[in-house]
């Protein structure tokens, strides 16, 4: 009997993931920095849930994190996905120096990404979501976002997907409602509006529409019930 189409597709995905993992393991003798990013991305997307073990993921984690910063929005290197894999690895029980190293990398990646032009780089919000999932101090980073303003930082901030944040969709789906509520209330506060007013002249005119859209969405959000929705 011919396998159903969805089963055949699923099998091909698994086979591809296993093949990628086998290729990566054969290259383990080489420095991690030399591992092909495309193969690693395909593996990282399916790691643990489809193929490989937590130990495999931990082995490739330094290169995965490296690619997550240098290969913006590349498949398998999305920060919220990496955070989900770390939770599956039970990373909270790793040796303390390893936990600190991961946390410091996530903070540093966010600090770097918020300074990049979002037209050419991934959203710094991806790292905020990763922090929230990993129970890191994303609240302090939100505060720093406003206290150390640059034009790119504010355009990055304006790129938040408010609908997904409020409703619990997209990558926000796995972020706890109370954490999403904190972010929503922070965005609704006067500090954001005042910060944009003070910096709008420094933002390139062709990007003003991003800021204007966020300000309109915040005003709409202020009319809605304050409690965020359950994840979709």
Molecular structure report:
With 232 residues, this protein is mostly helical. The protein is 63% helix and 0% strand. Helix 2 (37-46) crosses helix 3 and helix 3 packs antiparallel against helix 4. The model is unreliable at 1-10 (pLDDT under 50).
Number of strands: 0
Overall average pLDDT:
84
In helices, the fraction of residues equals 55-70%
The rounded Rg comes to 20 Å
**Main sheet specs:** none
Strand content bin: under 5%
Class of secondary structure makeup: mainly alpha
What is the succession of H and E elements? HHHHHHHHHHHH
Low-confidence stretches: 1-10
Large-scale geometry: elongated
> In whole angstroms, how far apart are the ends?
37 Å
Can you count the helices?
A: 12
Protein traits:
232 residues; mainly alpha; disordered N terminus
In short:
The chain is mainly α and 232 residues long. It contains 12 helices and no strands.
What is the topology?
Layout: H1 5-26, H2 37-46, H3 54-70, H4 79-88, H5 96-113, H6 125-133, H7 138-147, H8 151-158, H9 162-167, H10 177-188, H11 190-199, H12 208-222
Helix pairs in contact: 1-2, 2-3, 3-4, 4-6, 5-6
């Amino acid at each position: 009997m011919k396998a159903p189409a969805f089963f055949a597709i699923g099998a091909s995905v698994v086979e591809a993931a296993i093949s990628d993992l086998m290729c990566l393991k054969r290259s383990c003798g080489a420095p991690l920095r030399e591992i092909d990013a495309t193969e690693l991305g395909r593996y990282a997307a399916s790691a643990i849930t489809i193929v490989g073990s937590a130990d495999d993921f931990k082995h490739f984690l330094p290169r995965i994190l490296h690619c997550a910063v240098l290969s913006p929005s590349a498949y398998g290197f999305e920060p919220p996905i990496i955070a989900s894999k770390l939770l599956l690895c039970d990373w909270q029980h790793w040796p303390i120096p390893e936990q600190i190293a991961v946390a410091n990398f996530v903070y540093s990646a966010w600090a770097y990404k918020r300074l990049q032009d979002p037209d050419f780089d991934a959203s710094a919000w991806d790292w905020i979501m990763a922090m929230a999932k990993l129970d890191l101090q994303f609240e302090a980073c939100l505060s720093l976002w406003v206290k150390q303003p640059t034009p790119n930082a504010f355009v990055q901030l304006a790129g938040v997907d408010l609908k997904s944040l409020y409703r619990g969709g997209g990558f926000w789906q796995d972020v706890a409602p109370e954490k999403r509520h904190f972010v929503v209330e922070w965005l609704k506060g006067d500090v954001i509006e005042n910060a944009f007013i003070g910096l709008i002249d420094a933002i390139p005119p062709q990007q003003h529409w991003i800021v204007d859209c966020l300000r309109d969405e915040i005003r709409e959000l202020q009319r809605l019930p304050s409690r965020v929705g359950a994840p979709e």
